[in-house]
Amino acid sequence: MSDAQPHALRYLCLSDLHLGAAYSLLTHSDDQGNPDPTRPSATLVAFAQALRQTVATLQAATPGNPPVTLVLLGDVLDMGLSPMGETAAGFQCFIEALYPADGPALFSPHVLCVPGNHDHHLWRVAQDRQYLDSLDQQPADLIESTPLLADAPVPPVASELLTRLMRRQPHLADATVRIVYPNLGLFDEDTGRCVLMHHGHYVDSTYTVMSSLNQAVWQTPPPADVATIEGQNGPWVDFLWSDLGSAGTTGLSALTLYEVLRDAGASRDFTERAGDQAVQLLGRTLGISGQTKTVKGLTVSQLLRALMDVTIGRAAESERDADLQVISTDGLDQLQTYLAGPLKRQLDEALHARSPLAAQRLGATRFIYGHTHKPFERELPVPGYPMPVAVYNTGGWVIDQPTMGSTQGAAAVLIDAALNVASLRLFNDPVNGRMVPVHATDAASMRPQPNLLRDALAAAVEGQRAAWQVFSDAACAAAELQAARLLDRFFKPKQS
């Protein structure tokens, strides 16, 4: 099929749904603000209806093609800060909305999941399952990553939790959810087009603290590959974000933690306490005392506190100062470093393993990630790639502070059979009671060029404008209500 003809829609990427969390727009709340994840929110219902109508329109343009594969690009479950039962209930509502029993099968029952920092626990469980399943082959240790390319001979690891939740629907009895971590890639050897996906936490220095510690204490080089990044920092991700939701009253609530990270003084206190906890973790796991001397006479405790300050603390402050920016200068530097270094190395290895000529044919590359809760599209020059990389951010579905910023919002990213990419910009936080209407766009700002998927998506959205307006109204109302509740909570006098 030539580029002058439409290509079948193949993948739809969503991230940062934070299902089960009270601060997610997809979680239902009663009139008093009490969350009830067992019921779909008005925003979720409207989103599913409009999305299904739009996908049906796109599929009708290329009949006879398989259903669209859903790619859940991390922080889909709010496992880090919400109880397991609530996240599971939220996921089930999400599946019921996108896969209604009485509707056409628009989405494949075989889902791909790339865990993030809030649902990193899904990867830990998948690691354990893969190890148990391979005991007869005497595996050396837990795997640190899965193969990059979706069509690799080694299949992804199953997520038993998400699979069983999907199969609770009788019409989804054969459903599967497969874990791909930390990156997922698609490659067309005929055209050289490539799409790379990652949740985004390893583009954030907050989640690579242990690698920074290794470099500072033992003068080790930065991690060169994704397996090393995960091996060094995965336990830190677990410790900081991935399972606090199950800690009961001793865990940190989502709103409290986010409010802390958005307050300069509180962030300082938090980083100091987190540093103390990390020192205790090093003592328990590696036998390293906090008083152990390192470089220039600094103790491990002093060094780790400093690292916390320049990662968690500085990241929090930079986010507060960058409300009008979709990504900061430091964020761009970290993004380029990840793309040019560990991810490019994984891609090269995967392409060389595929065929001797595959790596030489690498052409237009797209990178899709979330994590920042700020959707955007832009082209970015990255060393090692033959042309600028088109970057798409899927944003997030949360209102986690009493004031809203126009840069925050959510998008879905679509991929067709020819690996064309388009962004379905769903919403940004409302300004003066209004949200930007749902629309289609792409990242071809530096090199404007035809994009049939973007054009087809734009036409489909316009054809379903009434349904998307219902969604925008629901999302706007939910966002403003949640912000008002947070503002009331912020100014509520503390009980003595």
TrEMBL record:
<protein>
    <submittedName>
        <fullName>Metallophosphoesterase</fullName>
    </submittedName>
</protein>
<dbReference type="InterPro" id="IPR004843">
    <property type="entry name" value="Calcineurin-like_PHP"/>
</dbReference>
<feature type="domain" description="Calcineurin-like phosphoesterase">
    <location>
        <begin position="10"/>
        <end position="202"/>
    </location>
</feature>
<dbReference type="InterPro" id="IPR029052">
    <property type="entry name" value="Metallo-depent_PP-like"/>
</dbReference>
<dbReference type="Pfam" id="PF00149">
    <property type="entry name" value="Metallophos"/>
</dbReference>
